[in-house]
Amino acid sequence: MQEVNLVNVYIMGKKYAVPDSLTIMDAMEHAGYELKRGCGCRAGFCGACSTVYRLGDGHELYVGLACQTKVEPEMYLAQLPFYPARKAYYDLEEIRPSVADFAVLYPEVFKCLGCNSCTKVCPQDLNVMQYVAYLQRGDFTSAANESFDCLMCGLCVSRCPVNIVHYQAAILGRRLHSRYLVPAAGHLQQRIKEVEEGKWDEKVEELIKADTSQLKEMYNQREIEK
Ligand code: FES
After folding, report:
1. Helix (H, G, I), strand (E, B) or coil at 225
2. Residue 213 — very low, low, confident or very high, per pLDDT cuts 50/70/90?
């Protein structure tokens, strides 16, 4: 039988001995927590499981995704269910991909001090300060590419000395890029036209009426684009 090494971790201040092979999220369940919030995909994609921790007596504050980060001895853990951050509201049809329109919605982006704290804290290893620089210049395509893997966990905001809400500003950049800067996909336009003309009504009706096993069968038999 494989030997299990136990390490002491502290969850919300209480000490638990957990196997060192576990992620923080698994360790919390091992300790008896039932995770109803603060977890989603459990695969490092959704950003719901941001966690801050310290190690032993060290004063440094670390961050990570609880579903991906393995426990370490003397880890003092706290979950961040949500990081309070401002979100601008806008109608994408009423704004344009310009620095002027962007600055009205996220003016704090232009106060960046260049400290790079956002980049250092990102659990996805994104170059956050770089995409902030692209947003300042109105280069929304580069900002979209640089921020593409953002999980929206909010940890970047937690460290920013000038209160930039990086992830919300980045999603505006990606929206401007997709709405105005990428050429419309011809096949999508064609399909929208067909849907509007009712060409697929019968098929949609079939899907609505199908039971689970029929849906599974249809899914397995579907045409896969090469
Ligand atoms: S649960 Fe989705 S990123 Fe961790």
Report:
1. coil
2. very high
